[in-house]
Amino acid sequence: MDLTFNERETAFRDELRQWLADNDPGEAPKDEDENYKWRADWQRRLAEGQWAGVHWPAEYGGRGATITETAIFFEELGLANAPLPANVLGLLLAGPTIMSWGTDEQKERYLHPILTAEEIWCQGFSEPEAGSDLAALKTRAVKDGDEWVITGQKVWTSGAQYSKWCMLVARTDTEVAKHKGLTYFLMDMEQDGVQVLPLRQITGEPEFNELFIEGARVPDENVLGGVGNGWKVAMTTLMNERAGLAFFLQVRLRQLLDQVIEAAASRGLLDDPVVADKLGDLHLRAEIIRLTAYRGLTAIEKYGVPGPEGSLTKWMWSDTNQQLTQFAADLFGPDALTSGNEWAYELLRARGNSIEGGTTEILKNIVAERVLGLPRMARGN
Ligand SMILES: Cc1cc2nc3c(=O)[nH]c(=O)nc-3n(C[C@H](O)[C@H](O)[C@H](O)COP(=O)(O)OP(=O)(O)OC[C@H]3O[C@@H](n4cnc5c(N)ncnc54)[C@H](O)[C@@H]3O)c2cc1C
């Protein structure tokens, strides 16, 4: 892709810069619930300015931004130190999946409240015995008239405590091959059959949850992409997760790296060859991730859906973020490990990066088999 800006792109950037200058998100509240409300409010303001879904087509309330404009958008958000919108799973996962597979009624019903953060979404895929091997999931959906009755357990459901809707994959047929018996549902979380129990992470915050589903009801019209087609629909969500989230997160990586460079400079450490060498290496990695994320966006523009290359960006990002936060801890010494310190949080939170959104081992398998075309690994050996 061509990374020099034409007149239209420069105008887009200037308009966004002005908007960001006029709409300072302010200081992030420390309390988790307050922080969440603050990010929801930020997303509402983005939506009012028509900036919430720049990459969404205009017919669905987005700006229909080109790839370069989308890249400018993310970079400028990073420069402005703006927070992630509250409904990040709605914007990056649920929205694009509904656009790809939804009926006109579903698009009309669900897309707008995603943009405005009026309705928050969570992702109900993983189960206690089905993570990497998603097709092994056991949550059952049984037809009862024109409704489905859902029973089972999900785990690691991020943001479920704030969510109105869940992208839920459940088993509707036990007689066929395991990935053929799945169906993708849009499940209302606000019902008696759904219980959300928080799980506390190493950072101390309950970012994700267990979901106990006991006879929850989902009407027929909330099946997405057809009964028995859940595997394909779920793959659309996962490809969007890896490509889209990696783009958001590479901007965050750059912010963190700039903070480390600044802190090293203020301690007079930039002339230390070990520090300079590591910072140079991290800078190079951050640039490679940025440019690879652009390539991912180009694939979306060309083919309409993200390709398996998104797995590469997600893998490189998690690896680099873990190295960066470890290096920051080495650099700042015990200061970085004091409870409540931002770097202690970043260091601990980064441990989950190589698990969430697909583990590094699984991503390596995808890159090997689907990007490089290497022979499939013999399963069970
Ligand atoms: C911060 C965070 C947020 C999350 N949010 C959500 C969410 O919102 N919704 C949701 O549904 N899930 C979520 N998850 C769950 C996440 O998707 C799973 O943890 C992940 O898919 C791995 O599944 P698992 O934990 O069951 O590990 P397992 O699949 O049991 O894997 C255990 C280990 O075995 C390795 N392994 C497994 N299979 C293979 C293989 N074929 N080849 C090589 N190695 C293999 C894995 O890499 C891993 O190291 C979240 C996880 C984290 C950490």
List the ligand species.
flavin-adenine dinucleotide
- By DSSP (H or I, 4+ residues per run), the number of helices equals 10
Distance between the first and last residues' Cα: 42 Å
What is the molecular shape? globular
Low-confidence segments: none
- Averaged pLDDT, please? 91
Radius of gyration: 21 Å
Main sheet strand line-up: 1-4-5-8
The description of the largest β-sheet is:
4 strands, mixed
Strand content: 5-15%
Q: Could you spell the SSE succession in H and E letters?
A: HHHHHEEEEEEEEHHHHH
**Helix coverage percent:** 40-55%
Which structural class best describes the helix and strand composition? alpha+beta
Number of strands: 8
Give the key terms:
single chain; 381 residues; alpha+beta; 4-stranded mixed beta sheet; 4-stranded antiparallel beta sheet; 10 helices; binds flavin-adenine dinucleotide
Question: Can you tell me about this structure?
Answer:
With 381 residues, the protein is an alpha+beta fold. It contains ten helices and eight strands. It has a four-stranded mixed sheet. The protein has a four-stranded antiparallel sheet with strand order 2-3-7-6, with no helix packed on it. A hairpin with a 2-residue loop joins strand 2 and strand 3. The mean pLDDT is 91. The protein binds flavin-adenine dinucleotide. The site of flavin-adenine dinucleotide has 19 residues, from strand 1 and helix 10.
